[in-house]
Structures are given as structure tokens and as C-alpha cells.
Amino acid sequence: MKGWNSGRIAAAMVLGLVAAALSAPAAAERTEPAPKGLDGVGLTDRRDHQVPLDLAFTDESGKPVQLRDFFRPGRPVILTLNYYRCPMLCTLVLNGLVNSLKSLSLQPGRDFEIVTVSIDPLETPALAREKKQSYLEDLGKPGVGDGWRFLTGREEAIKPLAAAVGFGYRYVEEDKQYAHPAAIFVITPDGKVSRTLAGVEFEPKTLRLSLVEASRGGIGTPMDQFVLFCFHYDASAGRYAPVAMRLMQVGGALTAAILAIALSFLWVREKRRRPTS
After folding, report:
1. Is 226 part of any domain?
2. Is-contact 26 200, C-beta < 8 A?
3. For residue 224, what are the contacts with CB-CB under 8 A and spacing of at least 6?
4. Do residues 214 and 224 lie in contact, with contact meaning Cβ atoms separated by under 8 Å?
5. Considering the domain boundaries, does residue 217 fall inside one?
6. What is the CATH number of the domain that holds 22?
7. What is the spatial distance between Cα 258 and Cα 246, in angstroms, rounded to a whole number?
8. Are 188 and 76 in contact (CB under 8 A)?
9. HSE, side-chain direction, 13 A CA sphere, residue 227
10. What is the pLDDT of residue 19?
């Protein structure tokens, strides 16, 4: 990669792997001290925290925008914080997101929005445009260009956004790169953090349920709602897990319904057998 020697790339790999390890699970408390150079790097659970939607950025075409421009009624937003010249970890996160999106029937720009924001205030819209084209080609879903936006901005907009979602990062001067965690954020249509999905791979079923849950009924099927009633997100496992009490309630209701149907059937059959007077 132009501008990067082998030593810096190796350092980037080490920092990236350690930062990824600090990313999961988002809700867990880290008790050991962070390695030197990674102080403040990691994820903090900010569920239900409001994202400041008036923050100003520039989109991949060079147009000034605000975050609120990408929030619409009923549509959740997948937010990713990366930087476009990142030598490793950002690529892994975005590749993992693309791989998951390929398996979803939900469509960016129709059912939800994706907003990728660079944490490097020196990066340009031209670089953002180049990255967008690359990832849209990899995704291979026609017509989703307006549903995935790549933004750049000033530090005074980037920092409060990162703080609002619990994304701790820092610039490592000696390596000339950013140390940061690996995660994506699912935001509700009104701009509140709904779910932090840590790591570089995102199970399609988990991503779908996270989007449906964040939409608050705006997208998804009745089956999705049924699954969300019986399952809850387990941050330690990074996926939705069954809730025993809810399953017992559903099982009891089904048993009662089956019993009522069987008794009704027996009653009707018995009535038909009785001689008419």
C-alpha cells in the first residue's frame, strides 16, 4: 500500500487485533489496564443514548449534510465509524458488514440506511467516493447507492458522534494511524442507539433482528416480531438468545389453544352423534 512501509503495516495489524479484542462484548467491563497506546480505545454501552443529529459533515459528492438528513420515519440506520486509509481493521469491519448485507432481504435505502463516517478529519470526499464505489460494487445490489453514504468531517463533529455511540479511539502519533475498536451501531429512526454489534463479522440473522427491533415496527414481518418476543439480545454472546419465561408463555398459550380446539372438536362430534328428538 502506497505510503505504508512493512513496519507500519505490521504495527497496524497488532493495534487492530488488540483493538478488536477490546471491542467485545460492548457491555462488558474491562478490568485489566489497556496496553500502552490504547488508553481510551474501546466500546462503551450507550443504548438509548441520543445521537446529536445536527452534526455537520460532507458527503462523498462534496455536499454539506447533517446527520438528520439520513434519518427517516420507520427506517433504522446502521452507523459505522472508520477511516478510509485504515490498513486493516476498518476493511475487515466493512467487509463483514457487506457479507452480512448480501444475505439480507432487507434493502439499504428502502428498509434502512447506512452511514459510514471517517474518524480522520484530514480525509476528503474524493476518498470517501472511492470507498463507496468499491463497497457498492462488492455488495452487488443495484439501486442502493443512496442508501449507503460515506461522510467526512471536522474533528468537532466526529468526536461528539463517537462519544454519543460509545466509540473510543485515538490517534497514535508514532504509527501515524488511528487505534479504534471494531463495531457497527444500529440507530433508531429518531436517532437513539439501539444496538452495538462488536467484531468484524455480523451474523445476518442478528443484524436483521437488530434492524427490526430498532425500527420499532417500521420494517420486518410478523414472524420477526414473534421471534423478538421470544428472544433477547445477549451482549456476551453477540446474538439473540431465547427467553425461557417468554417461551413458556408461548408454549402454554399454544397448549391451551390446541386443547380448546380438541375439546371443541369432541363436543361437535358428540353433538352430531346424539339422536334428534
Report:
1. no
2. no
3. 208, 209, 212
4. no
5. no
6. 3.40.30.10
7. 18
8. yes
9. 16
10. 52
Q: How many of the other CB atoms lie within 10 Å of CB of 56?
A: 13
Cell numbers for 170, please give them: 485515538
Model's pTM, two decimal places?
Answer: 0.76
Domains identified in the chain, total number? 1
pLDDT of residue 31: 39
Quote the CA–CA distance of 15 and 175 in Å, as a whole number. 10
8 Å CB contact between 197 and 183: yes
How far lies 221's CA from each of 23, 103, 171, 215, 226, in Å?
31, 16, 43, 12, 9
Give, in order, the Cα–Cα distances in Å from 68 to each of 77, 173, 217, 262.
11, 33, 20, 54
Res 79 pLDDT > 80:
yes
Tens of pLDDT, residue by residue over 42-74, are: 999 999 999 999 999 999 999 999 999 999 999
Residue 10 lies in a domain: yes
Cell numbers 437513539 correspond to 192
